[in-house]
User: Which sequence fits this backbone?
C-alpha cells in the first residue's frame, strides 16, 4: 500500500496480492488460526478500497524486510577491475631455508648418528664416513638459497 493513501481510494491487484502475502505469512507464523485466516481472506477479496484493507492487517506485525548479514556488511570492497591487491611479502629465502634445515637436516643428523654408533660398536674402528654423500647435496642446497633474492 502506498504510504499516503486515502481510505476511499481503490487499490490495485498488486496491493491485494501484498496483503494476501502478509496474511499467509501471519498464518504460517501461527499468528492467525484457520478460521481467522479464511475470514480475512474472504474480506480481502470482497474489499475495494484502502480503508477496507487496513483493518485486515492492523494487528499484524510490520512486513519483514531483508537485512544484509553482518559478515557482508563488514567485508572490504573488491578491488577495481584490472587492479590487484597488494600482497604481503614474506621472507621466502628464510622460509625455504627453514624447510631445508628442518626436514633434510634431520635425515643427515640421523645418518651421522648411525655412523657414530657403528664406530663405537666396532670398538673405535670407524668405517668410512658414508654420510658425506648426504652432506654434500645438503650443503649445496643450503648455499644455493643464500644467494637468491625474492
Assistant:
Amino acid at each position: 500500500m502506498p504510504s499516503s493513501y486515502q481510505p476511499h481510494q481503490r487499490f490495485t491487484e498488486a496491493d491485494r496480492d501484498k496483503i494476501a502475502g502478509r496474511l499467509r505469512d501471519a498464518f504460517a507464523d501461527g499468528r492467525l488460526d484457520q478460521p481467522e485466516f479464511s475470514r480475512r481472506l474472504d474480506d480481502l477479496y470482497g474489499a475495494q478500497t484502502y480503508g477496507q484493507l487496513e483493518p485486515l492487517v492492523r494487528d499484524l506485525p510490520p512486513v519483514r524486510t531483508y537485512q544484509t548479514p553482518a559478515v557482508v556488511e563488514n567485508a572490504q570492497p573488491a578491488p577495481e577491475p584490472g587492479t590487484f591487491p597488494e600482497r604481503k611479502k614474506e621472507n621466502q629465502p628464510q622460509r625455504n631455508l627453514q624447510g631445508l634445515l628442518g626436514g633434510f637436516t634431520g635425515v643427515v643428523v640421523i645418518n651421522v648418528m648411525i655412523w657414530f654408533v657403528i664406530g663405537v660398536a666396532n670398538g673405535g674402528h670407524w668405517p668410512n664416513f658414508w654420510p658425506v654423500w648426504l652432506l654434500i647435496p645438503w650443503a649445496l642446497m643450503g648455499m644455493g638459497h643464500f644467494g637468491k633474492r625474492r
About this structure: The mean pLDDT is 79.
